[in-house]
Amino acid sequence: MKRSKIKTSRYLRGQLLLMLESLLLVLVTGIFLLNKFLSFDISATIFDSIICLFFTILLSSIVLWGYRNHLFKGVKYAFRHYIICLSIRRSLIDSDYFVIRQFFENDVIKLPKISLLFEDNYQRAILLIENRVNYIHRLDNVQLSSALKSFVVENSYLTKNENYYCFELFDSQFERRLTFDSVADMYAFSSHISNTELFIDKITQVPLHHSLIVGQTGSGKTYGVYSFLLQMLNKPINYHLFLADPKGSSLSVIGDILNQKCTAEDVDEIINLLRQFNNKMEYRKSKLKAKLPSKLEASYIDFGFPPYVFIFDEYAAFQSVVQTMDKKHRDEVNKLISQVVLQGRQLGFFLFIVMQKSDSSSLPTMIRDNLPLKIVLGNAEQQTYVTAFGTGVEIPNYNFRIGEGVFTYPGIANNPKICAFSNLNFDINDAFQSKRGLCNNPRSMKKRG
Fold it and tell me: Rounded CA gap, 343 and 376, in Å?
């Protein structure tokens, strides 16, 4: 039987109700006209009963529709719910995601149960679609994006009991990016964020952890770093920042403002800075070990230790020079980086790596895999996404503007989710100048040749 001739059981039930309502309406109209113009004597009781039956069926249809589409949440909510669910059902039929059942000895389509819940004033939504063993085609192969109107699938997974596919949706017309016209506005917003969390946009907050930020020139990754730095400097706890910039660009200038002792440009200076960072981590390890007997599995947060963050800009440029060194130096650099990413989380020592591409020739796979927060900004090449997130990931089909991209973080975004760094409409240099001396130990600016 051709699929185009098979109807859904819901459609047939709806058609039966519509036919019954139409029949009763015609009957009521006919009786009224017969009584009025032909003086045909019809019992008032029969007439009233037919009218009552008509309105009962009509009201039942309205109540059923309202229940299915959550009319109690408002007419706007109900109609948006109805339109999207109808579109999804059509998409499931087109994708052969159904089973055939008998309805009055006719083949009918049985679609999976669908649940749609709007959140945050229609900016986000949760879609649940039933998973059944007798559905031949797996739902993770069904393209739902075209059926979701302005919504885009941000994340998808099976529920714990595997009875439903869960799709996290967001409205592509929603502006998630924050705009700050003054540094005071940014500090006011960040003051509501935990001391060991950082925000990216209106709806994205991530715990402080090892991070990878990837993006071509002009993608906005530098302003992303500025945003993270300013947040760290505004926390009530003291963030100890170490800045490495092998190209001697803007991050190096900021480092000179904040603390020249903990800023490096030359490769040898950067390696020495990594040694200092590791030495402080070893010292923290001894202090934490002495306290662990009182609280096993605790971390630096539990004992009030301040975090240390090493921000490494243009990491690939650094590695290109390291690769020309002798094996002893290469091994030492690899060991210094590896120790931080493997031991740093509990101790409160974190590495932020910023680069244009994260291929294994510049960033070893072991190190990349141990950077939980991964951000790729701009419309990157497919290979860039693969090296950052691994194979088999689906990147949202979105035309990214400057500062926009996708990120992953375990438990928050297991699959790439869209994010957008803030617009900083204020003097960045003045913002960092106001924080001079608050990071580690202040030191006067060095003269540049």
Answer: 25
- Beta-strand pair 124-130/373-377: unpaired
CA dist 244 → 255, 312, 338 (Å) = 8, 5, 17
- Taking phi first (over 0 means left), then psi (-120 to 50 degrees means alpha), and beta for anything else, what does residue 390 get? left
Please report how the helices 183-190 and 221-234 are oriented relative to each other, as an axis angle in degrees rounded to 10.
70
Tell me, rounded to whole angstroms, the distance of Cα 438 from its chain centroid: 33
CA dihedral over 186, 188, 193, 195, signed as positive or negative: positive
Q: Which residue do the tokens 């039933």 mark?
A: 130
Distances (CA, A) of 401 to 151, 177, 422: 18, 11, 12
In order of 166, 169, 200, 288, the CA distances from 120 in angstroms are 18, 11, 18, 42
CA-closest candidate to residue 169, choices 88, 231, 50, 250:
88
Nearest Cα residue to 154 out of 175, 171, 142, 130 = 171
Residue 1's contacts (CB-CB under 8 Å, 6 or more residues apart) are 107
The predicted-structure confidence for 389-401, as pLDDT tens digits, reads as follows 988 777 777 788 9
- Separation between Cα atoms, residue 8 and residue 101, nearest integer Å: 9
- What tokens were used for 33? 């006209």
Contacts of 299 (CB under 8 A, 6+ apart): 345, 346, 347, 348
Residues 251-306: tens digit of each pLDDT: 999 999 998 899 999 999 999 999 999 999 999 999 999 988 888 788 999 999 99
Q: How confident is the model at residue 232 (pLDDT cuts 50, 70, 90)?
A: very high
pLDDT for the residue 143: 63
Q: Parallel, antiparallel, or unpaired: how do β-strands 240-244 and 308-312 relate?
A: parallel
Calculate the alpha carbon distances from 181 to 137, 185, 361, 425 in Å. Answer: 50, 7, 40, 5
For residues 13-20, give the mean pLDDT: 71
Between CA 424 and CA 155 the distance in angstroms is 28
Asked if residues 304 and 236 have their Cβ atoms less than 8 Å apart, the reply is: no
Of 156-165, 300-309, 377-386, 412-421, which range is least confident? 156-165
> How far is 181 from 171, CA to CA, in rounded Å?
25
3-class secondary structure, 34 = helix
Rounded Cα gap, residues 297 and 285, in angstroms: 13
